Amino acid sequence: MRDRIIDLVFPPQCGGCGRKGAGVCESCLPPGVTIARRLRGLRVRALAPYTVCVRRAIHALKDGRRDVAVALGERLADHLAPGTIVVPVPTTQARRRLRGFDGVVAIASHAAARADASVLEALQCTSAGHQRGKSRAQRLASVGRFTCSEVVAGCEVVLLDDVCTTGTTFQDCAAALRAAGARVEEALAIALVG
Ligand SMILES: [Zn+2]
After folding, report:
1. pTM for the full model?
2. Number of domains comprising the chain
3. Is residue 130 part of a domain?
């Protein structure tokens, strides 16, 4: 009932373009589109290029829009085989506390539930420094930012993040997981930049 009243006062809107309707509409995130990039030792697949609408949808997710997390999770589920172990790329604890919500973990949970896969929050940020505002050169220089805290030896896992820019974050995450004995060959993102 409360949700219905909220819907009447604030009709649900696409997180990308603001059109009526919850989640993310099909013109912002066309179905069936996947783009791929080969990084050293890692195959990255994404649902879309980083368009203005996709960027807005990801900001809406980071602002705590759970309907956007559900919509993105449903779309990602098509790319997860049953039994896959999904490891979300972590945000720093401070940012997570600030928002009370981790968008990437939320997407992972919805996708895994739909695809009969599972989520393992195996990684933490080693330092408090995060990527926003850093130049491309600074990003490429940063390594060893992640720590693996779970027993993953012998497991094959798939990384998940919202946006893949240079791929350095995925590679650093993969390095931490591999050091702990996991096999990592694939990473998924909502959007791929460039
Ligand atoms: Zn839209």
Report:
1. 0.85
2. 1
3. yes
